[in-house]
């Protein structure tokens, strides 16, 4: 498939055909890695979903950033 390169501000833009985007699971807002290898432009989707580690998060709790209990009133349903 032949595609045209367009100007977008000070950069260049290339539209990705829907069939290609679907094949590599890319949609608007998804991060991609762009590189050049042997004169070939490569575009690869990147999974930038944050990965949290409970142990590391718990280590970040200190007396200074720990919140106190908040009173929300008497029970009104089947709370226990």
Automatic annotation (TrEMBL):
Span of the signal peptide: none
Database matches in SMART domains: SpoVT_AbrB (SM00966)
Top-level taxon: Bacteria
Keywords: DNA-binding
MF terms in GO: DNA binding
All residue ranges annotated as the SpoVT-AbrB domain in the record: 6-51
InterPro entries: Antitox_PemI-like, SpoVT-AbrB_dom, SpoVT-AbrB_sf
Protein name: AbrB/MazE/SpoVT family DNA-binding domain-containing protein
